[in-house]
Amino acid sequence: MTQSEEPFELRKSNRILVIGMSAGGAESLPQVLLTRIHDSDLLVGGRRHLSYFDDFSGQRMAIGANIAQISQRLFKALQMGEKAVVLASGDPLCYGIGSTLLRTLPAEALEILPAPTAFQLAFSSLHEPWHDAAFLSAHARPVTEVVQQVRLASKAAILTDPTQTPAVIAQALLDNGLAGSTPCAICENLGGKQERIVRTTLEAAAKEVFADLNVFVVWPERAKRSGITLGLPDEVFETSRGQITKREIRLLAIAELAVQPGHVVWDIGAGSGSVGIEIARSWPTARVYAVEKRAEFVAHIQTNLQRHHILNLQVIHGSAPETCAQWPAPNAVFVGGSGGHLGTIIEVIRQRLEVGGKLVCNLATLENLARVRKLLPDAQVNQIQINRGVPIGEMMRLQPLNPVLMVKWAK
Hints:
30% of the residues lie in helices and 24% in strands. It is of the alpha/beta class. Helix 6 (143-152) packs across helix 7 and helix 12 runs parallel beside helix 13 (366-375). It starts with 15 loop residues before the first strand and ends with a strand. The model has no long low-confidence stretch (mean pLDDT 90).
């Protein structure tokens, strides 16, 4: 039985009071709330919040890595009829302690009184409409998650922490294609006496230090994004023995896959990773899963991921279809190599591909084409033959690439 399932008599008078606060501290609260705080038996909050009430005579608990202990103590207060108050920043239900408490305590046991969120205060200070902004938090989260969402936003507001600072996030955004001239603002100590608004650029923000308590606002659409184009030259990918899905074939395959934002994409037999990487770069919210059985080429994929700053592609050293069992169902699948398991790979794709999803399978032999046609009799087949012009003295001749049999199937 969980805490929220254990019986106790809940009276409105002993509900846990969760108060949102601004950087203005105790002075920003009305007298009625100050009275309830001082009359309580237990006061919970961050160290900054507790510092506003040094004269509190009851039990004090600072929020840290002890959230389980705090939840237990709050539940005990409910059972014993003690008065408990939790202090939080802004709106406790916006990236705050409120959602954590709701996972362990009955909703009816909480009385939540929000203050304006840090996001609201930031945009108010900037005199900027905020209904179309993306609201993000970097608190104890990988910066890669934040970067992916910022890249798609017209404007984004980010709650930072002492590790994921504005400088760290700004540098990550620069590393992932946003221009150094992208405008941004750091809004420090909002609502407090030391409030400060710094308007700058990503390039400058990456080199500066700001107050720990801040909101980082970025306007990606107001500066040109650098380097996000589909159809990278073959030469920008590390590979061995020229084994790569050539640019012309790659573009055709990606067009047939019809990837959309948020799609799940499988890249089976990824080789050097060129197809999956192109997709991941062009659709930052897509989730791309790649498998390659040759260690040499897995190393190439890792190098290419770093070279092109790819955050949303996960590569596994292994064989399909076994590795695909743990992946989410795909909206699009590219098969560049099968390692001798083409039949079983196709069968797994038939079962797990989402309705409306697309499969593109590049083949080199007629025998493999016959196997796929037997399993997917309604698939479309094209032979792709690319010839590239190369100089011969002062003239030009056409040099053929290996022909590709492209199989296309929609579920």
